[in-house]
Specification:
Distance between the termini: 92 Å
Order of helices and strands: HHEEEE
Radius of gyration: 24 Å
Low-confidence stretches: 1-25, 105-113
Shape: globular
């Protein structure tokens, strides 16, 4: 008796299931990668708003990969940039005027003064 067939059927079924699962995943998402380096993205942001980089991240917004950068300027305000991770184009700039989430801001200290 040949015992190879049951194993081949199980393997074929598993491969069929895995291929179906892979096909069910959306393929319209670009890979989370960028030809624009973080150093290049930081230079672009700092040319627009001098200050200190507080945070940088590579993210996916809709079907586009972007680099999000937060710069804290001399006044202590946080300026948020969204750059196209492929071209370096500034897609949006937002001044965060909510001091409670700025670095070192919004922390209340107890005082008896």
């Amino acid at each position: 008796m040949n015992h190879t067939w049951p194993h081949m059927i199980v393997a074929a079924t598993a491969l069929s299931f895995l291929n179906g699962a892979a096909l069910a995943e959306p393929h319209d998402k670009p890979p989370l990668a960028s030809p624009l380096t973080f150093d290049q993205a930081i230079a672009i942001a700092l040319a627009e708003q001098p200050g200190e980089v507080f945070e940088i991240a590579l993210e996916r917004h809709d079907a586009r990969v972007v680099t999000d950068i937060e710069v804290v300027n001399e006044a202590g305000h946080e300026v948020e940039f969204t750059l196209d991770a492929r071209t370096g184009e500034i897609l949006s700039t937002k001044i965060d005027d909510e001091p409670s989430d700025d670095p070192g801001e919004g922390k209340e200290e107890d005082s008896d003064d």
